[in-house]
Amino acid sequence: MNADRAFIDTNVFIYIQRTDVPNKTKISEKTIDFFECVVSTQVLNETCNILTKKYPSPKEEINRVLHSIQESCHIVIVTDDYPSKALDYHFKYSISYYDALMAAAALEADCKYLISEDMQDGLVIENKLQILNIYEHADLLTR
């Protein structure tokens, strides 16, 4: 395990469940093992939403995925001050509000990276948090 804390976006957990993208599944699994992982309650909710709508799964399987995330990651609870921070980051960095909400949680948890395939790779938020598309930088997982 690497000592760096990384906030993990929902897509990483979804790739672990999919069998049609074996390379991304492998990178996603290595990512969870490599970093000290952090997620927010938002990620848990998004995972449930995707596994009930886009990739319909049985309730037992969704619960297993949630339990696995909770066992392998620190959980940040999104509180009432996060929306204001997220709004600031949305306008300052031109990222979606929901991505900015993850950035707020990642910064609160003192993460070095926000791992996501869907955000602007390399963007640094508040001179502390770097967006990292691990699928473009999988070589980092071998250090």
The main pleated sheet reads as: 6 strands, mixed
Number of DSSP helical runs: 6
Q: What is the helix/strand order?
A: EHHEHHEHHEEE
Oligomer: single chain
How would you portray this structure in words?
This protein has 143 residues and is of the alpha/beta class. The protein has one domain (5-133): 5'-nuclease (Rossmann fold), CATH 3.40.50. It is built from six helices and six strands. The longest helix has 14 residues, at 59-72. The termini are close together. The model has no long low-confidence stretch (mean pLDDT 95).
Write the layout of secondary structure elements.
Elements: E1 5-8, H1 10-17, H2 22-34, E2 36-40, H3 41-52, H4 59-72, E3 73-76, H5 82-93, H6 97-108, E4 113-115, E5 124-125, E6 129-132
Keywords:
six-stranded mixed beta sheet, 6 helices, Rossmann fold, 143 residues, 50% helix, single chain
